[in-house]
DNA sequence: TTGAAAGCGGTACCAA
DNA sequence: TTGGTACCGCTTTCAA
C-alpha cells in the first residue's frame, strides 16, 4: 500500500528524487540513494505496475502466443522463455491460440490489440494472412519460434535438414524401404511438417529412391503415431524396413505399435525421430536433437534486443541439430522382414 | 493510439460520458451510447490497460503459479484456466515456480508482491510455510488446485479415495500382492502422493493385507516409473501380481517396463493408475479418472466469485473420480507368476 | 543534485 | 442524463 510519496517523505526527499533513486535513472547522490532505498525497504514499497506502465509506456511484460501448451515442444519452449524472463524480472502473459477456435479469433481481435506487453513471442503459431495482419499492426516487436515468416524475426531449427539427415542415416544403414509418418494431408498443413517431409523426400530422391517415397498421414501426437503405425505395420507385406517420424512423439508411437505387434525394434524395424524428446532415452530412440528450451531463451534475448533497440532488419536464427544415435536403428543386413517376433 | 478523449470529441460528448458509455457503468442515453460506440469503432479505440488499472485498481489479469507446465496434469489445468479466462476477456500471467530453484524464491519474494493480478490460482504448489506467508500477505483472493491448504479455497479430487478405490479394484480381482509405485521417500514429499499412498495402505489394511504393503519409490514421471518398474519386475521372485501407480504416467511407465521384460499385461501383471491421462487409452490402462481441465475452469469460477464478492469462508470443492476399466487389469485366477512371456 | 509540477489515460464523484 | 474535475501512482522535463 505504501506509495512512492511515503517513501519520499520518510527519506526526506521529493517524489522525483525518490523515483530517480529507486529506478537508477538520473543523478542522485549516493547518500540520498541509500536513504531512499532504506526507506523503501522499511516500508516494503512495491511500485504500482499500472502507474509505472501508464507513465513509461512499458508494461514489463512479454506476451507469448502458442497453439498448445500440452505438447512437449511447446511446453519446453515455454519453460525456456519463462526462465529467461524470470531472471530479468519480466512477467509473462500467455495466450493459448488453438487453431480454428473462436478463442483464437478473440485473441487476435481483442487480446493482442490491448498491447499489454512490450513484445510478443509467437511459438509455432502459423498465422493465416488475416492473423498476420493483426500481428503486425500491433506495432510491438515480435519474435517467432518455428516458422518461416518474413514478417518477424525467427528462431528455429532447420527442419528440412533434420529430416534429411535422419533419412540419410537410415539410407546409410542400407534401408531402402523408408516411410515417413506424421502430418495431415497436404492441404491444411503445418509448416514444420512440410519442411520435414520435404527433407525426407529430398534425401530419398538424392539416393535414387524417389519411387519408394511413402508418406503416412497421422496426427502429430504419440497416440496418433501409434494408431497410424498399427495400421502401417499390420500388414507384413506392405511393411517398410525403416520409418522416419515427423517428430519423436510420432516415432515413439511407432515403436509402441511395433512392440504391440511383436515387431522387434531395431532388428526388424528401424525408427528415427526428430526432437530428442524427454522419453527418447527410455525408448532408446535415435533422433535429431533440438533443444526447444534454448530456442525459448534465444527468442527472449532477441526480443529484448529489439525492444531496447528498435527493429533494424529481421533476424533469422537457424539452430543446427545433431544426430543422436541410440538403439532404434540398425543396419539393414540383419533384417529378416518375415520375422515378426520380439 | 486514439484515447478516450478523441472518442469523446468525435461523439461530441465529454470524456466522462464516453467512459460511461463504453464501460456500461452509469446512466447514458441509448442514443449517446450508440454514438460513442460508433466513434470508438471508427477510431479503433482500445483502452489503455495501465490507465484502467491505475484508475480502477483492477488489472483484468489472473495470475497462475505452478511448479511445472510440462506435465500432463498441469498442462491440462492450465488449458482449462486459459479457456475460462479467454471467454471472460481476462489475461493470464504465468509463474513457473519449480521447487528448490532460486527462480521460485524470486517469484514469491518479488513477482507476486507486485500484485499484477486480481486473483491467483496456485496449482499443485505445495508452498512451504514461508511461501504460504508470502501468499497470504498479498491480500488478493487465492484458489488452490490440488492440496489441503486451510489458507485458501481449494479445488481437488479426493486422492485418498481414488487410490483406495484403485487398490480395492485389484483386491476385488483376487490380487493380494499389490505394490504401490511412485513418490519420493517420505521426507520431502508431495501431498498428493502422500494421500494416494495412504489410500492404498488403507485399502490393504481393510483387506487384511497390511503385511503385503509395499511402496516402491520413483520419480513421478513416465521414465521414472519405467526405471523403477524395470527394477521391481526384474526379479521374478519378488514380483507383485499387481501394481497401483501413483498416477497414470508412472503406471504407463510400468506397463512399458513390463512389455520390455516380456511380462504380459494384464495376464501376468495387473496395473492401475490414477488420472485418465491422454495416453491411457493407448495403453489400455485401467484408471481412476480425473479431469484437470474441469478443475481449472472450476478454479476460475471460484476465484472470480471471490474477487467479485469478497472472501466469506474458504470453499473446498472436492471432485469425485470414477473408475474406468480398460484392459490393464485382470482377475488373479489366471495368473501364472512363473510365466514371463508375452 | 534536488524539487515542483505537468502529464500518462482513464474513472468516478458531484453538480448541473 | 451529462459535464467538470479531482484523483490513481509514478516518471520526467525544467528550474532552481
UniProtKB/TrEMBL annotation, chains A, B:
It comes from the Bacteria. Signal peptide: none annotated. One of its GO terms (molecular function) is transcription cis-regulatory region binding. Residues 2-56 form the HTH lacI-type domain. Coiled coil: none annotated. Keywords: DNA-binding, Transcription, Transcription regulation. Pfam families: LacI (PF00356), Peripla_BP_3 (PF13377). The keyword Transcription applies. InterPro entries: HTH_LacI (IPR000843), LacI/GalR-like_sensor (IPR046335), Lambda_DNA-bd_dom_sf (IPR010982), Peripla_BP_I (IPR028082). This is Ribose operon repressor RbsR. The gene is rbsR.
Amino acid at each position: 500500500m505504501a506509495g512512492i510519496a511515503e517513501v519520499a517523505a520518510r527519506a526526506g526527499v521529493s517524489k522525483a528524487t525518490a523515483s530517480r533513486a529507486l529506478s537508477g535513472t538520473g543523478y542522485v547522490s549516493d547518500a540520498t540513494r541509500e536513504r531512499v532505498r532504506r526507506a523503501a525497504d522499511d516500508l516494503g514499497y512495491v511500485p504500482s505496475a499500472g502507474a509505472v506502465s501508464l507513465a513509461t509506456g512499458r508494461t514489463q511484460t512479454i506476451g507469448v502466443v502458442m497453439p498448445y501448451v500440452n505438447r512437449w515442444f511447446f511446453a519446453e519452449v515455454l519453460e525456456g522463455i519463462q526462465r529467461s524472463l524470470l531472471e530479468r524480472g519480466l512477467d509473462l502473459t500467455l495466450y493459448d491460440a488453438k487453431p480454428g477456435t473462436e478463442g483464437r479469433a478473440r485473441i487476435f481481435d481483442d487480446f493482442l490489440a490491448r498491447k499489454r506487453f512490450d513484445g510478443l513471442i509467437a511459438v509455432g503459431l502459423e498465422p493465416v494472412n488475416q492473423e498476420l495482419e493483426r500481428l503486425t499492426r500491433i506495432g510491438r516487436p515480435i519474435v517467432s519460434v518455428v516458422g518461416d515468416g518474413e514478417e518477424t524475426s525467427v528462431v528455429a531449427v532447420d527442419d528440412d535438414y533434420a529430416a534429411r539427415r535422419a533419412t540419410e542415416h537410415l539410407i546409410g544403414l542400407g534401408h531402402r524401404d523408408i516411410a515417413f509418418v506424421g502430418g495431415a494431408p497436404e492441404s491444411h498443413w503445418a509448416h514444420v511438417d512440410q519442411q520435414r517431409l520435404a527433407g525426407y523426400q529430398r534425401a530419398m530422391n538424392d539416393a535414387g529412391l524417389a519411387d519408394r517415397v511413402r508418406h503416412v498421414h497421422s496426427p502429430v501426437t504419440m497416440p496418433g503415431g501409434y494408431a497410424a503405425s498399427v495400421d502401417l505395420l499390420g500388414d507384413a507385406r506392405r511393411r517398410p524396413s525403416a520409418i522416419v517420424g515427423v517428430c519423436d512423439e510420432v516415432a515413439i508411437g511407432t515403436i509402441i505399435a511395433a512392440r504391440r505387434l511383436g515387431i522387434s525394434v531395431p532388428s526388424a524395424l528401424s525408427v528415427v525421430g526428430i526432437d530428442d524428446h524427454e522419453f527418447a532415452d527410455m525408448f532408446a530412440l535415435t533422433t535429431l536433437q533440438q533443444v526447444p528450451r534454448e530456442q525459448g531463451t534465444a527468442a527472449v534475448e532477441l526480443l529484448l534486443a529489439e525492444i531496447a533497440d528498435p527493429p533494424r532488419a529481421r533476424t533469422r536464427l537457424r539452430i543446427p541439430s545433431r544426430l543422436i544415435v541410440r538403439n532404434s536403428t540398425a543396419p539393414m543386413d540383419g533384417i529378416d522382414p518375415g520375422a515378426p517376433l520380439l
